[in-house]
Amino acid sequence: MNELSPVNEETASLRQDLSAAFRICHAMGWSESVGNHFSAAMSEHEFLLNPCWQHFATIRAEDLLRIDARDGRVIEGTGAPDASAWCVHGTLHRRKPNAKVILHAHSPYATALACLKDPTLVPIDNNTARFHGRTAYDLDFGGIADAVEEGERLADSLGDKSVLVMGNHGVTIVGETVAAAFEDLYFFEKAAQTLTLARSTGEPLAVLSDAVAQNTADGWIAYRGMAHRHFDYLKSQLPHVGV
Questions:
Q1: pLDDT of residue 242
Q2: Digit-coded pLDDT (tens) for 116-142
Q3: Domain with 41 in it: what CATH number?
C-alpha cells in the first residue's frame, strides 16, 4: 500500500475539511443558491476554491479548484472561478498571506446586521464579546463584488482583523484552519442573532465595558480547541456525497 507523503496528506486533509465546510454551511441554511465562496491557501501563491456555480451541498474534496493567487490561473481542476470569487478571495490571498482560510457567507443574522446603518457588533454577552477588537467594517457597498478595485478595498478594510462585516452584503471570516474559521463563522452568526433579538425588544442594551469585553475576548483563547472538536462532530453528521 502506498502511503501519502506528509505534504500530500496535509493537502488531502485540507481538501476534505474545506469541502465539508461547504456542506455544513448548507446544512445550517447558510448557502445561497449556487453562489458564495470558501477558500484555503495551500502555499504562499496557491489556494483552493469552489468551482463556479456548484451547489454547496454537492462539493467534494476532488471538486475544489487549485488557483494561482497571482493571476487566477487554474492549476488543477475543471472550470474557472467566477469574477466575484477571484475579486475577493484572489485579492485577499495575494494581499494577506496570513489569511490561510477565507469564508464568505450571507448567513441570515450576519447579513441583517450588515444591513444596518451602524452594523457594529456591540458586546453584550460572551459571543458578541468574542469578536471585540477583531472585527473590521466595510461600508462602501457598490453592488456585486466583481471589480478589482473592490477586492483591494476589502483587503484594506480587513487590515489585521479576522472578521470583515461587509455593509449591505454579508460577512467574511479569516482563520488559520478551516475548523477555526468555521467556528468563528458559527459564533458570529449566533452573536448577530443575539444582538438582533436584543434590539428587537426596543429596550436599552446592557453594553459591556471595553475592559470586560476585551477580557471576555481574551478568555476565549483558552477554548480554541473547541473549534476542532465541534468541526469534527459537524463533519461526522454529514451525509455521504456520491460521485
A1: 57
A2: 999 999 999 999 999 999 999 999 987
A3: 3.40.225.10
- How many of the other CB atoms lie within 10 Å of CB of 230? 15
Instruction: Find cell 496535509 and name the residue.
Output: 10
Tell whether 1 is covered by a domain. Answer: no
Residue 153, judged by CB atoms within 10 A of its CB (0-12, 13-18, 19+), counts as: middle
**Confidence (pTM):** 0.93
The answer to whether residue 148 is domain-embedded is: yes
Do 76 and 66 meet the contact criterion of CB atoms below 8 Å apart? yes
User: What is the rounded CA–CA span in Å between residue 63 and residue 232?
Assistant: 21
Distance CA 125, CA 110 (A): 16
Number of domains within the chain = 1
* Nearest one of 164, 113, 116, 112 to 138, comparing CA atoms: 164
Residue 8: which pLDDT band, with cuts at 50, 70 and 90? Answer: confident
Check residue 230 and give its pLDDT: 98
Inside any domain, residue 243 = no
Q: To the nearest whole percent, how much of the chain has pLDDT over 70?
A: 96
d(Cα 108, Cα 1) in Å, to the nearest integer?
47
